[in-house]
Amino acid sequence: MALPDFQAPPENPELPDLAKNLEAANAELLAAAKALFSDVDRELSSRLAHHTTAVKSLTEPLGDALRRLEAAFMEVEREREGAYRALREQIEQLRQEQLALRETTTPSRGSPSSARVWGMKP
Questions:
Q1: What is the pLDDT of residue 111?
Q2: Residue 65 placed within a domain
Q3: CB-CB contact of 122 with 116 (8 Å)
Q4: Does residue 10 surpass a pLDDT of 60?
Q5: Is the residue at 10 inside a domain?
Q6: Are 61 and 69 in contact (CB under 8 A)?
Q7: Does residue 56 belong to any structural domain of this protein?
Q8: DSSP states of 75-102 as a string?
Q9: DSSP code of 2?
Q10: Assigned domain for 48 exists
């Protein structure tokens, strides 16, 4: 099957005018779109600023409360560390006193038994 010969369409004398009209319509459309997007951008920027201010006014008290809570927590933590330090010191003191008491009450080799020292019979 043979393909028909391709023939270019005949020149249309109105074609250059259509191209100019199309370019003009495109330019108008772009200008209208730019104006619309510019208006939308201004409106959205205004809304964003308003919302940012609103969120900031809502979150500032929370931030202040968190800072107060953190300060109180740090104070409690300092007190806890101090209490544990004091407790460790008391435990160490008790341990040393127990060792000293053991040394005084435990008879050493060659010394009389504690029962004899106290007058008891072994």
A1: 58
A2: yes
A3: yes
A4: yes
A5: no
A6: no
A7: yes
A8: HHHHHHHHHHHHHHHHHHHHHHHHHHHH
A9: P
A10: yes
pLDDT of residue 115: 54
The C-alpha atoms of residue 2 and residue 31 are separated, in whole angstroms, by: 51
**Per the structure block, which two tokens stand in for 56?**
């900031």
Encode 63-77: b = buried (16+ Cβ within 10 Å), e = exposed: eeeeeeeeeeeeeee
Full domain range(s) for residue 91: 31-104
Residue 114 near residue 105 (C-beta atoms within 8 A): yes
**21-75 pLDDT, tens digit each:** 899 999 999 999 999 999 999 999 999 999 999 999 999 999 999 999 999 999 9
Cβ–Cβ < 8 Å for 95, 88? no
How many domains, the chain? 1
For residues 82-115, b (16+ Cβ closer than 10 Å) or e, as one string? Answer: eeeeeeeeeeeeeeeeeeeeeeeeeeeeeeeeee
